[in-house]
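Students often ask why we bother predicting the structure of a whole assembly rather than each chain alone. The short answer is interfaces. A chain on its own may look different once its partners are present, and contacts between molecules only exist in the joint model. In this exercise we take two input lines together and write out one structure for the complete complex. Read the inputs first and try to guess which parts will touch.
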Amino acid sequence: VKKIINAPADIVVDALRGMAAAHPEELRVQTDPAFVARSDAPVTDKVAVVSGGGSGHEPLHVGFVGPGMLDAAVPGPVFTSPTPDAVQAAVGKADSGAGTLLVVKNYTGDVLNFETAAELVEASGVGTRTVVVQDDVAVQDSTNTAGRRGVGGTVLLEKIVGAAAERGDDLATCHEIAERVSANVRSMGMALTAPTVPHVGEPSFTLADYEMEIGIGIHGEPGRERVELESADRVVRRLLDPVLEDLPFREGDEVLLFTNSMGGTPGTELYLAHGIAERLLADRGVRVTRRLVGPYITSLEMQGMSLTLLKLDDELRNLWDAPVRTPALTW
Amino acid sequence: VKKIINAPADIVVDALRGMAAAHPEELRVQTDPAFVARSDAPVTDKVAVVSGGGSGHEPLHVGFVGPGMLDAAVPGPVFTSPTPDAVQAAVGKADSGAGTLLVVKNYTGDVLNFETAAELVEASGVGTRTVVVQDDVAVQDSTNTAGRRGVGGTVLLEKIVGAAAERGDDLATCHEIAERVSANVRSMGMALTAPTVPHVGEPSFTLADYEMEIGIGIHGEPGRERVELESADRVVRRLLDPVLEDLPFREGDEVLLFTNSMGGTPGTELYLAHGIAERLLADRGVRVTRRLVGPYITSLEMQGMSLTLLKLDDELRNLWDAPVRTPALTW
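Now the answer. The structure tokens for the assembled complex follow.
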């Protein structure tokens, strides 16, 4: 398999060792069970924000650990949920006594394992709330998902609720803000190529040279349809229209537009697509006031992109603008 | 060709429009001739730092425009040098009267066109100095290059000299610092897959499923050798040993280690490789005190990586640590 790795079974731990070496002052990295925490965790009197999920979507979640975003992140094996004991260990490191908000993407394994972890930590006296992100409008139910999948909206939610926790909001308020983001965010993605899971060694699915998959998930789950390649103008419209119709986003709405690379799509193509989305939104009278463009929730080396729209209000905008300092997102 | 684009000939301009939309307050983007400048350029009494080169290496250079780094960047067509008149226009926008430092990667077309541009702007009364980055230890002479190619060291140089200009160093001092970085930085890269130039439509070269290319350039130029796939441990050693021997870097030296993705190599693999490099350097007694890990100088969607080592002194370290605020690099 064409990857820069040693033993496929060791990838996550090997990558975590590299993260630890790269960010010796900012992060504390533990490998058994595996989690990444802010070096100053637990932060006194602050609600902890903890997320996690299968690896292979980097920088989500481990790259978002730091002041203003996550207190800890729990990476499972590639495309596989982390175990409850790993989540429990991360919460144990992150919780200051002010309670922990768990941010979970809606995949059956993640939901189940975070639920079990929440029971375990509640039993030890830690207060928790959970938000389940389910922003992907492409399909209802999917491989390993009941309901909608959690995708790009997770990045925005982690940034915003991270800022709320950092300014001192209590657990109930953080949870309310997280649910508000979740209620106002919608996404859809597409792929030109398939990712290859290291320990599998074969592409997760097959696309012909002239094909792309619209509405794909971040683990290569099937989308809405497989169609012939089209211009970027049409691709962007195929993603944006269902997102707009779903909430719905209306003329006059203020939004954050997040144009995400699935990993293998380079910067030129991503900015090109972003520009098209901005024009289409301007045509509809939807006001883009904040943007994020880059590979922030990926599917290994998959070529493709996703669009995420978040309807903003004054508080969400201010929380988005608040300082953040993590390996992958800093301002 | 499997890319998110409209007409291949319009890619660079279409991507610039997206950049302009994404960073309306930070950047001024012009499309004919094409360049990107800080929105506050020219900055009074500050030496301007201007770079450029073929597109397809993003975020280099356009993603590094902003306070503490570049005043302007000039993107040519994909893998093709920008024209002298575009460089001239960018300098015209960026120069405050304090002079302009031109940062050029060592490719024959870039060197020639920046030289012509320098003559044109000098004739109009703008003082210029030029630094030519040539940090790639893989090969002497290459496709379209006499001498060594300019690669990852360019990113570090632009950050450091950008900080020198920002603190008010004059043109001669900026030039001296740039030459000092250039003299102390070495790189080498490898590829698992080939990039596809949009208007060509075919991969730039062919690698078998079991092959990788060691010492490759960022335009798919041939490297030192084509070998069978190996473990990450061996791949990292293949890149690091020639880099270490070249300067040479010695026991006790303080260095910045830059582990770069060529585009398609995802975060897990990159951090994994970074961790190996840190261990090998520690074994040699080379002290890594600063790090950069990510896709900062790419070759479209090529899978692969490069390692860059910069020998630090107190001044270079302080300039590296100085604030920077650009689309791709912020602290």
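Check your guess against this: The mean pLDDT of chain A is 97.
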